[in-house]
Fold this protein.
Amino acid sequence: MDSSSGISSNSSSGLQNSGSEGDLLDQRKRKRMISNRESARRSRLRKQKHLDGLMAQVAQLRKENHHMLTALNLTAQHYVGVESENTILRAQAAELTSRLHSLNEIVCFLCAGNNDGFPSEEEPVYGMDEPVMNYGWNCSSQPIIMTAASADAGFLY
């Protein structure tokens, strides 16, 4: 009986040893599983934080894009206004150039008899509202009014 009890005590202690090794392995598995779960949770949190940062960046970039488009539209409207004003000014410059040319022809015609091309102090200049002496010219001031509709594209520089 002793031998049978010895075998049984050896086998039961072997079972206890293997049971404690099994428990140790189970404990390691559980510990590794808990560690993996915690690592996965931290990874999900990092991923969510990164995603939130990207979403905030998208919102900020959309806001900047909206502001840039608004500024671009205002600049385009300003450009159209300036271009229209330039067209009017070019037409007015062409009209003034034409008037100056006409006035120069009149002066040349009036001064054709004089050697230096200008009226002498003794010669009155006629053809205006009243005679003018001493190189003074009496010109009625007449405003030049042009609109974009009357601006001829042929006068653009």
